[in-house]
Structures are given as structure tokens and as C-alpha cells.
Design a protein that fits this description.
Distance between the termini: 40 Å
Strand order of the largest sheet: 1-2-3-6-5-4
CATH class of the largest domain: Mainly Beta
Largest sheet: 6 strands, antiparallel, barrel
Structural class: mainly beta
Number of strands: 12
Number of domains: 2
CATH superfamily of the largest domain: predicted glycosyltransferase like domains
Length: 203
């Protein structure tokens, strides 16, 4: 079965029932309201909701932030518990929902047609790990890039800027989206193009 954007996004309102879920396995991490983070994997996903396989369940109604390979940062609310995890109703502006629908259409068709996975979309460890971190006040600090994807990077540094803070890694602009032991993660202001993304990329 070959999917189309209109099949994944059947109506213009934001009712989750009007979107078709597809079986796509994407790996990532999620952050609960208490800021604990755990690995996860999608079971089924649509532009409006996600069924996740997750080791720790949040409470119904809790807000959650999910970081998925190839889709980036998603926000939503836990609506149901399942045997393997829970279901999240995502909340995004129309333009982002359309972008997610386009991406899911491509992923679903790639899977249906047996196309090989494009490894360039996954997190990679760059050759050039050392760079400088510039804060808004002009302060420059040394840092190390742990890994990088098209849309963001994990940074090892002696400080953890507040979530939402705008920073510059090398010459690449982004915002801090989460903290972890020993560092933090940023989401780039402008994702890299697939054609130029490889382990030799420099931020």
C-alpha cells in the first residue's frame, strides 16, 4: 500500500481520529513532566498522535516532550495507557502538522516499498567534536559535541544554559531543549540539508 499526504491527513480540523496512524518504528527519547528521560520507540504514529513503546509510563493528562529520529522535537499530552507504553496526543501548529504528515508519508512509503533506510537521518558522531559555545552575552566556552543529527546536537560542557536559551555552537545557531548529566541538547534554528550532512560536518 502506497500512502499519500491526504491519506495521512484526511481533514483540516485537529481531531486525532481524522488522521490515519501508520506502523513506523522510530527510536528516540521522551521527557516526563518531572524531567526524567527514557528511551522509546514508536509503534504507530500519525500527524496528531503517537503510540509509544516506553519503559516508564506517565500519568494520563501529563504533558510530555518527545525527541524522535527523523522527526525531531514533538510535544503533547498522554491520553491512554497501553500494554507497551502509552499514547500521546500531539499539539502543533498547522504548518508543523503538514510537515510531519509529509515526513510520515515518505517514511511509510519507504517502508512499504522496501526501500533501504537512509542512515544520514540518524544521530552520528562527528569527526570534529571540539568547538566553542557562545552565549547571548558574548561569553565563549569550550565544548564537545557528543552526537549530531539533522535537527540538533548533544553537547558536553561545564555549564547547562536554561532551557529555551539561544546559543551558538561554532557558527550554528540553536536553542537549548533539554538537560542531561554532563551536558545539554540543542535544536538547530535551521536543520541541515540531507545532502551536506555527514560525519565531517562542522558546526
Amino acid at each position: 500500500m502506497v500512502y499519500s499526504h491526504t491519506l495521512l491527513n484526511e481533514r483540516s480540523d485537529d481531531t486525532a481520529d481524522h488522521y490515519q496512524r501508520v506502523k513506523i518504528n522510530l527510536f528516540g527519547r521522551y521527557m516526563l513532566e518531572d524531567r526524567r528521560e527514557f528511551p522509546c520507540q514508536t509503534i504507530e504514529i500519525s500527524p496528531a498522535d503517537i503510540s509509544l513503546s516506553a519503559p516508564v509510563r506517565g500519568s494520563l493528562g501529563d504533558k510530555i516532550v518527545i525527541y524522535l529520529d527523523q522527526l525531531g522535537r514533538l510535544e503533547g499530552t498522554i491520553t491512554h495507557s497501553t500494554d507497551k507504553g502509552f499514547i500521546v496526543r500531539t499539539k502543533h501548529q498547522t504548518h508543523k502538522i503538514d510537515r510531519i504528515a509529509d515526513k510520515l508519508t515518505w517514511l511509510a512509503n519507504r517502508q512499504a516499498l522496501g526501500m533501504p533506510e537512509d542512515r544520514r537521518h540518524e544521530r552520528i558522531i562527528p569527526t570534529h567534536k571540539r568547538s566553542k559555545l557562545t552565549l547571548l552575552d558574548g561569553t565563549e566556552l569550550p565544548m564537545k559535541i557528543i552526537d549530531i543529527s539533522l535537527s540538533g546536537a548533544a553537547i558536553e560542557a561545564d555549564i547547562q544554559p536554561t532551557i529555551g536559551t539561544h546559543v551558538i555552537v561554532g557558527t550554528t545557531h540553536g536553542s537549548v531543549v533539554r538537560h542531561f548529566n554532563g551536558g545539554f541538547a540543542i535544536e538547530f534554528s535551521y536543520p541541515f540539508e540531507t545532502a551536506t550532512f555527514n560525519k565531517d560536518i562542522q558546526l
